[in-house]
Amino acid sequence: MKISSNFDSGNIIVVKDQQPNDIELQIRQDNESDFYQWFHFKLDSTPFVEHNITLSNLAKSAYPDGWKGYQAVASYDRQEWFRVDSEFDGDNLLISHTPEYCVTYYAYFAPYSYERHLDLLSSAQVSFDCELQHLGETLDGRDFSMLRVGQPEEGKKVIWVTARQHPGETMAEWLIEGFLERLLDEDDGVARNLLDKAVFYVVPNMNPDGSVRGHLRTNACGANLNREWQAPTMERSPEVYLVMQEMQETGVDMFLDVHGDEALPYNFVAGSEGNPRYNDRINQLENKFKDAFMLVTPEFQDEFGYDKDAPGEGNMTVATNAVGEMYDCLSYTLEMPFKDNALLPDPAYGWSPARCKQLGEDVLVAIHAVVDDLR
After folding, report:
1. Cβ of 188: how many Cβ atoms within 10 Å?
2. Which domain holds residue 20?
3. N or C end: fewer C-beta atoms under 10 angstroms in the chain?
């Protein structure tokens, strides 16, 4: 029996692995950070034998409540990821699974590999009206890239979409894949009409270093990018610095920042109601967006989510607040679950890449509903 994680986004520490029914593992912290929750490892062992895998020391993880009701994902072919029996006792997650093949991969959520990220960028750039732009480099020396979809023209609205500031929230890039597939479909009426009215700037992965390193929440030097938007630097948070620099060139009429939530089993949005410049116009845009989103899919709801910030008390280091305040625009954080959508549960797969991609397609309808009112 062998357990390893020396691959793209791998993360595990082997404590004990002598017997299939008594395996103990721990999750490695993000570099220069106390955050840990993302895991991704490979088990090479005897098939058709029950394996009991304990992930220990989780009471001190980033979001202990996220383990309650959580089911780990597993895959034999690294394409289809299914849920396996998991139980949390307050400090340990016990995964009980009988593999059908010699090699099984386990993860916190279906991984979105760096190679798939590069494939996404390259396949998008060959589409009509899409340009792949190099913004700079990350701290680990990786390309930091953006897709511009549509031609910038006077009078067109400018819509920015970013994803995966927190690298372990892989569902965010799965959503972007579906979002781009529809936006780049020349036969889709919603996409065609949107591109007549707007130009999109899309950053599918804000944190490629953290993604490859197997981090939950931070970049190569331990910076939580979604707390860097008030004063980013090239030394600590070049990813945010470069995006904000580009935004100054393009302006922003709408901003959507895509994330995943460890604890809440719902899809929801969080706005910028705590901003000093928040006003009735923004409130009306928010409501129109949500109403259209709920109309197009039952996967989205507006009953469960984060508590709203009091007026003037928004955290201005967070992307949604910072961009919304700077550009006086509709600015939303879109959250998806690591677990499942409790309103439409799927015991076999839970919240999955396919559902993320479909939500990415559906969110275009909500954007279409507000595009004429943006300014």
Report:
1. 16
2. 8-107
3. C
